[in-house]
Input
Amino acid sequence: EYLSPLEEAMDFGVQEPRRTIDSRFRQPPAFMVTMADQSVIEGQEVTMSVRISGQPKPMLYWLRDRVTVKTGPRHIVRETTDGTFEMTIKSATRSDTGIYTCRIINEYGTKQCEARLEVKGKAYF
Output
């Protein structure tokens, strides 16, 4: 019969190997990719994106000038298949200008990154 390494160790009275499982499931949040500053013209679409890691999977919050961004028809938040989180602003207006913060939180910590968005008025000639 085949014994798993753990059972084999028990048979010979060898001390059980230290469990490495714990550290894999306890990981503070971290950014693998952070946002970049952007400058757009009024009416353009803007997408800010980050890639994150952490166990358990961190909760993610988007803020503008320290106020939570409310999702809706103009502000769309999604997670892509490769684990990137995006916030898209449809048809940016000057009032969207500000410092955007992405905050990630799990029970082992909190991290955040920031980027500036500047929305310029349309140039009329």
The longest strand covers residues 109-120. Residues 49 and 85 are 6 Å apart (CA to CA).
